[in-house]
Design the sequence.
């Protein structure tokens, strides 16, 4: 392979965009988005379309026992550990056209570009469509990559059910994607994932590429405050044991802890539950959900500790009870420094404005980083919108991200 040929190699941006728009027709919604939830008939249709494109590109297609789809481009050393490029085709119920699917089809475009240039690689390149990344129909999210990486037990995942009582295994059988290949049957030499940013940072800065250095940590906590239910009209304010009187300062303390932790910190309250839930009754219990995030584990721990300290202090002052339940914990996950540098080098050589950044959202790369050197490539999305039918991206930005992916994967596949 001539170095000059490889240096000049680019993906076909128009073809990538056409593939994205064709896939967007599968599960298309009236408001311009996609509803292609995992293991539904629309997921089956999307998988079939992607498989047909892979086979047309001469790739060998297989799928494992959790339905992860793998499309393999041969390398000169057929038994060498492959370079893995992957993301997901499933969407939220009111999802967009690019979340996940861009990373899958950018991987296909890498293979197509290499085929057009007749370039061989030392290692095979495998493109993956991971099952149920979104977690919209079945929990947990990032299911397929989690099973592949050994994070989740296969039988446990098979037993998960949706709101209609259908299990994951039943749904896989129904759409014909219950494979026989053992999950994790191969280990990647390196893993890449291209993805829209799902936030506003790149667009606001006028930058084209995010060189992702890792995924921030996240903890979900349910704070339950317990008081005494009483009549709203007859109970004097000073006599009340009202959970709200503690909730408001605790919430303020949580936001203050996030502000003190710096610009990378996040604190979100997305759900509140009240019982008995009557307009003219002081509540007995108040449950507040907290989503705390930070890329540094120690800082995330301090944010949690400050929330719990405030809960203890404020409830003691008001004669209330409290407890905190940890619902979910995702430790901060740094990506491989060498592979991150490979992505950065590719962006620089191609002349794209870029920045190093942390991913605020979880991705399949979170699990893959446990078993292989991993890195991600971000591209802007308009107004930072994602998990939204109005999610959008510029064709040139997506082509740039796919070009960075191409050159990073090429470097890893020849290592």
Sequence:
């Amino acid at each position: 392979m001539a170095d000059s040929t490889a240096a000049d190699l680019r993906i076909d941006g128009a073809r990538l965009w056409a593939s994205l728009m064709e896939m967007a027709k599968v599960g298309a919604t009236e408001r311009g988005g996609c509803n292609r939830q995992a293991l539904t008939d629309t997921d089956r249709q999307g998988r079939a379309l992607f498989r047909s494109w892979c086979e047309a590109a001469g790739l060998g297609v297989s799928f494992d026992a959790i339905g992860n789809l793998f499309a393999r481009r041969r390398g000169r050393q057929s038994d060498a550990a492959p370079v893995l490029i992957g993301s997901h085709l499933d969407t939220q119920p009111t999802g967009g056209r690019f979340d996940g699917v861009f990373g899958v089809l950018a991987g296909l475009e890498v293979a197509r570009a290499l085929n057009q240039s007749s370039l061989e690689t030392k290692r095979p390149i495998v493109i993956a469509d991971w099952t149920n990344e979104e977690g919209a129909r079945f929990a947990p999210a990032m299911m397929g990559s989690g099973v592949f990486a050994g994070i989740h037990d296969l039988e446990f995942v098979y037993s998960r059910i949706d709101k209609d009582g259908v299990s994951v295994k039943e749904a896989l059988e129904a759409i014909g994607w219950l494979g026989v290949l053992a999950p994790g049957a191969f280990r990647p030499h390196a893993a890449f994932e291209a993805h829209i940013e799902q936030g506003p940072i790149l667009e606001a800065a006028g930058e084209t590429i995010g060189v992702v250095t890792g995924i921030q940590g996240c903890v979900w906590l349910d704070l339950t405050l317990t008081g005494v239910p009483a009549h709203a009209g007859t109970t004097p304010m000073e006599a009340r044991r009202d959970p709200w009187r503690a909730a408001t300062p605790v919430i303020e303390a949580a936001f203050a802890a996030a502000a003190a932790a710096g610009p990378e910190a996040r604190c979100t309250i997305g759900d509140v539950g009240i019982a008995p839930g009557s307009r003219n009754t002081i509540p007995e219990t108040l449950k507040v959900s907290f989503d705390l995030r930070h890329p540094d584990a120690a800082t995330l721990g301090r944010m949690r500790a400050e929330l719990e300290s405030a809960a203890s202090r404020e409830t003691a002052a008001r004669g209330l009870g409290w407890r905190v339940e940890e619902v979910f914990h995702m430790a901060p996950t740094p990506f491989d420094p060498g592979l991150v540098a490979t992505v950065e080098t590719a962006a620089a050589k191609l002349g794209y404005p870029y920045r190093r950044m942390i991913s605020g959202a979880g991705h399949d790369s979170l699990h893959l980083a446990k078993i292989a050197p991993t890195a991600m490539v971000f591209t802007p999305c308009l107004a930072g919108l994602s998990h939204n039918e109005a999610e959008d991206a510029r064709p040139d930005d997506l082509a740039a991200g796919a070009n960075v992916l191409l050159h990073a994967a090429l470097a890893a596949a020849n290592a």
